[in-house]
Each structure stands twice: as C-alpha cells, then as structure tokens.
Amino acid sequence: MTEETYRNPILDADWSDPDVVRVGDDFYLTASSFGRTPGLPLLHSRDLVNWTLVGHALERLEPAEEFARPRHDCGVWAPSLRYHDERFWIFWGDPDQGVFQVNAPQIRGPWTRPHLLKAGKGLIDPCPLWDEETGEAFLVHAWAKSRSGVKNRLTGHRMHPDGTELLDDGKVIVDGDRIPGWFTLEGPKLYRHDGWFWILAPAGGVETGWQGAFRSRGFFGPYEERIVLEQKDTDVNGPHQGGWVRTPTGEDWFLHFQQRGAYGRVVHLQPMRWGPDGWPVLGDDGAPVAVHTRPDLPPQPAAAPATDDDFPGGRYGRQWQWTANPGDGWATQHSGDGLRLTCVRSADAHDLRRLPNVLTQRLPGKPCTVEVELRLDSDEPGARAGLAVLGDAFGWIGLQRGQDGTAHLVHRFAEGVADAERDAAHPRLATEGRARLRIEIGAGARCRFSADTGDGFRPSGPVFTATPWRWVGALLGLVALAPAGQGHAGAATFTRFRISAS
To answer: Where is the Beta-xylosidase C-terminal Concanavalin A-like domain (predicted)?
Structure first.
C-alpha cells in the first residue's frame, strides 16, 4: 500500500450497517447502535478513508423504561442518513416499535427527539428519498421475520415532504420470493439517478450474501434486479449493506460492511462506476477490492475513531457507550483525571451481560493490547470493578473487596450458555487496592488476561476467545458494581485507558 492507495477495511471495528452522505466537501456516516447509548454514532471524513467520531444523534433510547436493561439486539437498526432542506435526517427501524426519524440543522446537533413515523412490529431498514424534480417524498423499508412473520420484501410509501407522516398504507415494491435464488432481502437504500429510481439492497444473509441493485422508472415499480457485488474469489464474505456517495469531482463510491465474527461488521470502501448498460459496477467488476487507488480528494492526515482516554474531569470520550440507558450518578465528574464509576448495586452482579452500567467501546479488528489502571475506592464487601470483554460469552479481570476488607485480584468468565460467571484463575491479594489490567487480543479475537498489582504483569487464566453478542461485535467494557443491598457502595477509579497495536 502506498500514499496513493488505501486498504480495506477502512473502519476496522463494528460500525454495523453504515450509511453515508456528502454535504459540500464533507462526508458523514452513521451506523447501527442497537441497544447502546448514546446511539446513532456520527462520523466525519474529508477523503472517505480517514474517519473520526464527532458525536451521536440519539441521547437516550425511547421508551426509556424499555431500555433500562441491556437489549443488545434491539433498538436502533440500520439507519439511513440524508441531507435535505438544509437539515440532516436519520431514519431507522426499531423492530419492536416501528420507523423513527430525527433531524438537525448541523451534524453535531441539536437533534430533535425521536418521531415515530410508522408504528408496527418488524419494520426495519427505512430509507427516505426527496425527489428534487417533483417535490415528492418517498420511504422504503424492509421486514424482520422475527417480529412480523414477513421477510424478503421491500415496502414503499409516499411520505409527506416534511418527514412527519406517511401518506398511504404502503405497497410491496420488491418481492424477493419472486426472484429466483434470492432470500433475506433487506437494508434498502433509495436514490434517483439518470431518470431511474434505484434501490441498493443486500440479500442472501450477512455472512454469505451479496449486494443487489434494483431500478424502475416509477417508485412503485416494476423493478429490475442485478447482483452488483459478491465475494467471488476474495476473502470478503457476504459484502453487504451500505450506501452510495458521489464526490465533488463526480467519482462514485460505495461503503458496505463485512461480518467478521467477534469483531462485528467492519466497513469497506468500494469504487463504483456506471456501466455502458446504465447499471452500477462495484469493486473490481463486482468483486470486493482489498487495496485500491484513493478517492480523488485532497490528502488528509491519517485518522481513526478515538480509543484511548484519560477521562479528564471524570468525563468519558465519545467512543464510549452504556449497554442501556444510563442511570443518574453512574459516572461522577470531578476536578482531576480518571473515570470514577459508582459501584452500582445489582442482583445481577454475577452476570455482566445483564448489567446496564457497563461502559463499552468497540473491539478493534486488528491484534492489540488493551490496558487500564484501576483503584477500588470501596470498602463494601463484594464490591468489584474491572476490565471486560463482553459478548455472548464474557471475561473480565479486576479487583474485589473481600469480607475481611482486603482487596483481591479476580479474573472471571462465563460461557455463552452459562447463567453466571465463575473464576478463570485463583484470586490473589492486591494489598493497596490498585492494579494495572491488561488484555492482549491476538488473531481470532483470542484474549490473554494479565495484571500488575505491584510486582509486574503476571498472566491470569487460560486464553479466552471473544464472541459476538448475537450480531453485535464483542465489546470492551469498564464496570463497577456491588451486590444487592442498601446504601452507597463506593466507587472505582479508572485511569489511562490505552489500546496499542500488537
């Protein structure tokens, strides 16, 4: 790879179901955030290769009581990001509630509260289109069989141009069951180009499928279809679901995800052109590219979404999300550096997967070493805090206060089928209630835990292989908790969170 080329994936972590839009010289991207908060991440780039995280469009999930506990496979599914009438718009489907919309005058907000555009079960992957030629507005969405009993079809609506309501009951505009060999058609993105309505939509399942294109002279069809991106002889399985964007100089590019197990859905950038027959050609004649010439855009310094954090003033960076809507007082601001997490009392202290008060960020897609320093500021017996890798299975290492007041280094894990954690190594004394914690993450998301309680880093327990959380990639997490009971249970302070390439 040279300065004139880029290598995929361009976002090597779980930025699931990406969509992209250009406004002037700036590109913006959002992605699924499921049940984590804040939701709807907002990324910015000037060259389509280097991206930074600039904020979130959704402060809390609604209704709040539904997301007071982890619902990692619910919430925000497959958002669409558009710019219209000098406003940014994001539409998404909550599979249990319906189609929502938020909008803002600037990418950093202020964003409106979620507006329920269409209520119903199984309504997912919505995408709007404002037809600049006619002034009409449209919406297309897919279906989740788990909630509706329906899948493999796309439904279209006319929409009020102000984005507040749909103007009809909807019509199936693409029925995947009528297309030989197609299944699990979903994730539509709607465009106008060259006198056609275009829908770019994947099918065939996220791990094994392909990217399709559909076109029609009228929004409600009939549509022709073609497969425009598939694995072929590459190692990019199921190139799947994304968005088309055009640069100021007229180049076309397509961003999509690839499912990579514990690493989640990483984002690739494919060149795109329009063939002589008027159909889009993605990648290398329909195969994903690994290395390619960069977009014809002004050179930019290397950048990526932040990971490291010193927690100035007790504040955590944009890269962190709670596993549910946050409670009051979970993180306390103060005058120094370091994240002060309250040891939240819970009857579920034996299972991190059930806790809303785990502060998480995405697991990097490349081998790395994760470190953080911990001080347990609690005298409550059973109070504990640590560094975790969280998925259907989880493992964590940290400190726990014993019944006699001493602090111990503990390392625990739970398999995906287990209802409670158990020890991954024998506890050992941590006399000052402090520890440096480390997870070395190698190929295949294999994690080696170690800790330094004053006598240097010592390995702890066997290798733990991270797993996804259903279709959400594994997460790194910081947590402080205590057994159920009454009264304040103290806190834990985390400092110098670092992720370094291995």
So the answer is: 309-499
Can you tell me the distance from the alpha carbon of 480 to that of 399, in angstroms, rounded to the nearest whole number?
10
Contacts of 322 (CB under 8 A, 6+ apart): 36, 37, 330, 356, 357, 358, 359, 360
Q: Is the peptide bond before 63 cis (omega within 30 degrees of 0)?
A: yes
- The dihedral built from the CA positions of residue 187, 190, 193 and 197, taken in this order, carries a sign that is positive
Average pLDDT rounded to a whole number, residues 445-469? 97
Q: Please give the pLDDT value at position 172.
A: 98
Average pLDDT over residues 255-275: 98
Task: Using pLDDT thresholds of 50, 70 and 90, give the confidence band for residue 1.
Answer: low
- pLDDT of res. 502: 87
Burial of 490 (0-12, 13-18, 19+ CB in 10 A): middle
> Mean pLDDT over residues 284-297, rounded?
98
**CA separation for the pair 264, 472 (Å, rounded):** 6
Identify residue 83 by its one-letter amino acid code: Y
Mean pLDDT score, 394-414? 97
Phi then psi for 278, rounded to 5 degrees? 90, 0
Question: Is the pLDDT assigned to residue 129 strictly greater than 80?
Answer: yes
Please provide residue 66's backbone torsions phi and psi, each rounded to the nearest 5 degrees.
-70, -25
Assess contact for 93 and 141: CB atoms under 8 A.
yes
**What is the distance between the alpha carbons of residues 457 and 440, in angstroms, rounded to a whole number?**
12
pLDDT for the residue numbered 72: 86
Residues assigned a catalytic role: 17, 186
Reported for 450-459, long-range contacts at CB under 8 A and 24+ positions apart, including other chains, are: 450/397, 451/397, 451/409, 451/411, 453/409, 453/428, 453/429, 454/430
